[in-house]
Specification:
heterotrimer, A: 257 residues, mainly alpha, MetI-like fold, globular, B: 270 residues, 14 helices, 74% helix
Chain lengths: 257, 270, 352
């Protein structure tokens, strides 16, 4: 009994630690004063002006679109890579994994700058496409790293059994391997989406004129003080994801059993 | 169907967007402003200001990694013990804070920790002594632990969930007490997750520059700050690249060591 | 496999379609503007678009050094950029700018004060390349409730009484400027002995400094986090509005006067539109809107006259009489080696 209470207290403390700044941001979104360090009274006006602010809404749209597309592409490329790695010789696989790890091991700023140098030398115009390509690049490792453990748990004989029973390779993959990999693929996608959403440094170096994501927008705003609309937007995103999460988890699950 | 062909898109992508850019970093790092070959940018790490910055970064990121580990391991164990239907929810609760922008979250800590900040406001209302950690290395450590803790919790949790409870039960049946079971069974089995977690916390902590700027008041110069400064303030890309190569080699060196200790090559369980 | 390929293909096509939309605008009537973050009133851009029918593609940068390689590489061609003094200097030296045709920008000659052109000659000798947009000084902002003596000299930033209450600028040139000026040296000096002294001063100051920050001086001073801070005059007006206890001074040893101005890069694709844009920004009512939005002093004399609030119009902070000061100096480009020297010493100071 005591143990259980201690456990709960521990979890609560950690959650408090993780969520304290987020509560702070939500509180700030209701702050009448424009500066972070002064409480000017309660207001909801920032939530109204947020939707009138075209620049922020455009940045939000860019952010979501880039996060979604880059996560989707990274998931496809990563999944194929994982499947193909199974058939590789051990040392070749190690090399592949090593390459995968590079973007995670490099300082973000080095990844960002090196991509910028690449785009400059290729003569690609900076814009939506360059950000997207950069995001796909740093997302692939997260996908691979979350699918690979699942891959290892796979029993190769089920795949072969399907082939023996007359399925084509594609059928065998989608009917046998894919469902087993799905949790890994989904968590990889989610991870990639989150990483893309939160990235600032790499986006910063690979973006072009006239395109902003929320991160780069916030960074430029730091110069003159962050606009309270940003706090409002973050609070909205956070609350809507939270609600979505709770809905998904507390709707009765018919699939179970 | 040829499996080698399947890896083509990935290999092509990696070659174009990982290997070539990396070569460019090496090119810049090994040349000077005129384009002539030089090792000066690599050797620059030996100057007192750079080696001190590297040392400070290593110190703070090791401390943060250790703290993350000791916070995350018990947490992962408690979470593992909870009912499985809640699993996905638990994982998401730790990813959720990342949906708030990283810069905003770190700025929020500033609001909390400042001399006239929220925490000190509460402390002074309770007549307690004020907390003075903003703009010190402790605040940087706090920021690192805060930002990277999920990267430690998730891999350890993922590994712990997969441990067959029968193995643990068997150990108990054979007369091992809980401490022995933990040390002989659970801990060794979770090593891949631990290594993965340590990597995922240590590397970003070692290379960060934003946290030390916002929470450390730039009073501690970290190697990440030096590199960032070379690229964005001084515009000396050659020196910046040279220092990043050193940083990269240092990280790879550590990875190799951990790969040697982790014989099964399972360290990548996310 | 086929399905996957088809999926990939679909994805590529949709992206191509998306970015296609983005690129097609380059054939239209547009102007690419590259400015500091939050450095003009967004409403003025809308007005410009309405009046001229030219679409503004607006991009922002945070430091001159981030802007520079992007412009130098030429991979994103801008029509109008707003760099600071020493960066204008560097861009001129590296042949990145084109001469401005004042005939096409009548407002620039009519509205911008002659004083400011004179100051700008420090970095743009014949006023050929740069039209001043914002300017200001660097000084000390202090909290009257925390500092009871008169603040007149940079040396107060070395006073142990205020240990932990001082905010310094986290940028090489500004930090060195403070130390060099206090010693009576030029803030563009390349003399190693003078720079050595300045470095030692900065090292000695470090234990007293609460934090090295750039833009956050503002928020921290408003919140009463610190007693003294080195700040740009433009920020001072805003901070005083939020917290009346704050006071701004230009120390008697002299200080830095800076100018950010419009320039047109050599590879600008829409020069004509760039000229229209600059001309529009130099119009008195537009300059006034921008001044009220960003609170950085405007060199636009016609706009100054339009400021309704008498206190601000006559404010010594916003519009100090330049002729009264003989010790205000603008930054110059120091050359690659000069930059490297400053940076090395700065790192030495900061790692101590």
């Amino acid at each position: 009994m005591m143990r259980n209470i201690a456990k709960k207290i521990y979890i609560l403390l950690i959650l408090f630690f993780l969520y304290a700044p987020i509560v702070t941001l939500i509180v700030l979104s209701f702050n009448k004063s424009k500066t972070r360090s002064k409480w000017g009274g309660f207001t909801v006006k920032w939530y109204g002006s947020l939707f009138e602010n075209e620049a922020i809404m455009q940045a939000l749209w860019n952010t979501l679109l880039i996060a979604f597309l880059s996560a989707a592409f990274a998931t496809i490329i990563g999944t194929i890579a994982c499947v193909s790695m199974q058939g590789m010789k051990k040392h070749f696989r190690t090399i592949c994994l090593g390459i995968t790890n590079i973007p995670m091991l490099n300082a973000e700023i080095v990844t960002g700058i090196s991509l910028m140098l690449l785009f400059i030398s290729l003569g690609i115009k900076f814009g939506f496409l360059t950000i997207l390509m950069a995001h796909i690049t740093f997302n692939i490792p997260y996908v691979i790293l979350s699918i690979l453990p699942r891959m290892k748990q796979l029993n190769p004989s089920t795949y072969e059994a399907a082939l023996d029973l007359g399925a084509s390779h594609i059928q065998a993959f989608f009917k046998v391997v894919f469902p087993d990999l799905l949790p890994g693929i989904l968590s990889g996608f989610l991870m990639a989406f989150t990483m893309s959403l939160d990235d600032f440094i790499i986006t910063h170096f690979t973006k072009g004129p006239g395109i902003d994501t929320l991160s780069t927008k916030i960074y430029t705003e730091v110069k003159k003080g962050i606009k309270p609309e940003m706090y409002a937007l973050s609070s909205l995103i956070f609350v809507s994801v939270l609600i979505l999460l709770l809905l998904v988890n507390y709707t009765p699950k018919k699939k179970k059993n | 169907m040829n499996k080698k062909l399947l890896s083509a898109p990935f290999l092509f992508w990696s070659a174009l967007f990982i290997i070539i850019p990396l070569c460019m970093v090496f090119y810049y790092g090994l040349t000077d402003q005129t384009g002539a070959f030089t090792l000066e940018n690599i050797k620059a790490i030996a100057t007192p200001e750079h080696s001190k910055a590297l040392w400070e970064a290593i110190k703070l990121s090791v401390i943060s990694t250790v703290i993350c580990f000791f916070l995350a391991y018990p947490l992962a164990m408690i979470l593992t013990g909870m009912s499985t239907s809640k699993n996905s929810l638990i994982v998401l609760i730790f990813i959720l804070p990342m949906w708030m922008n990283f810069l905003l979250r770190t700025m929020a800590w500033q609001t909390l920790l400042e001399k006239t900040g929220v925490i000190n406001g509460i402390l002074s209302a309770l007549h307690l002594p004020a907390l003075k950690i903003i703009n010190t290395p402790s605040a940087i450590v706090l920021g690192m632990v805060y930002n990277f803790l999920p990267f430690m919790v998730l891999p350890i949790y993922n590994v712990l969930v997969k441990i067959d409870p029968n193995v643990v039960n068997a150990a108990r049946d054979l007369g091992a007490n809980s401490v022995q079971t933990f040390l002989k069974i659970t801990l060794p089995l979770s090593v891949p997750g631990i290594i993965s977690g340590i990597t995922m916390v240590f590397v970003p902590a070692l290379t960060t520059f934003v946290i030390s700027k916002i929470l450390g008041g730039s009073k501690v110069l970290l190697i990440g700050n030096v590199i960032e400064q070379e690229f964005t303030q001084t515009g000396n890309w050659h020196l910046g690249s040279g220092l990043s190569i050193v940083l990269m080699l240092f990280i790879i060196f550590n990875m190799v060591i951990s790969a040697v200790t982790d014989k099964d090559g399972e360290a990548n369980a996310l | 496999m086929k399905k996957l390929l088809a999926l990939l293909l679909c994805g590529c096509l949709s992206i191509a379609a998306l970015t296609g939309c983005g690129n097609s605008s380059s054939k239209e009537n547009v102007v690419y503007v590259y400015n500091w973050g939050e450095y003009l009133d967004p409403e003025t851009l809308e007005l410009f678009e309405q009046e001229t029918g030219i679409k503004v593609i607006y991009d922002e940068f945070e430091t001159n050094e981030i802007m520079y390689p992007k412009v130098e590489a030429g991979s994103s061609a801008y029509d109008v950029i707003c760099p600071s003094d020493y960066m204008v200097n560097k861009m001129i030296e590296n042949d990145l700018l084109q001469e401005i045709n004042y005939d096409h920008i009548p407002n620039a000659k009519a509205n911008i004060g002659a004083d400011y052109y004179r100051t700008a000659r420090d970095f743009d000798p014949d006023n050929k390349y740069c039209i001043p947009y914002c300017w200001g000084t660097v000084g000390i902002l202090y909290n009257k409730t925390m500092v009871d003596e008169p603040v007149t000299s940079w040396s107060i930033l070395w006073d142990e009484k205020y240990a932990g209450e001082i905010l310094m600028q986290d940028s090489v040139r500004d930090a060195f400027m403070v130390a060099l000026m206090m010693k009576g040296y030029s803030c563009n000096t390349l003399d190693e002995k003078e720079l050595r002294e300045a470095t030692d001063l900065l090292i000695a100051q470090k234990p007293l400094v609460q934090a090295y920050v750039i833009d956050q001086v503002r928020d921290k001073m408003i919140g009463g986090e610190a007693a003294l801070g080195v700040i740009y005059s433009g920020e001072a007006i805003f901070t005083q509005r939020e917290n009346p206890d704050l006071e701004y001074v230009i120390p008697e040893e002299g200080s830095n006067v800076w100018i950010d101005g419009w320039v047109i890069p050599k590879n600008a694709p829409n020069v004509e539109n760039a000229e229209k844009f600059i001309n529009f920004m130099c119009r008195d009512d537009i300059a006034l809107m921008n001044f009220e939005y960003i609170t950085y002093s405007t060199p636009n004399v016609a706009a100054q006259a339009l400021i309704e609030d008498e206190e601000i119009r006559n404010s010594k902070i916003a519009f100090p009489d330049l002729s009264q000061y003989d010790n205000l100096e603008a930054f110059k480009y120091l050359g690659t080696e000069g930059d490297a020297l400053y940076n090395k010493l700065w790192k030495e100071a900061m790692s101590n």
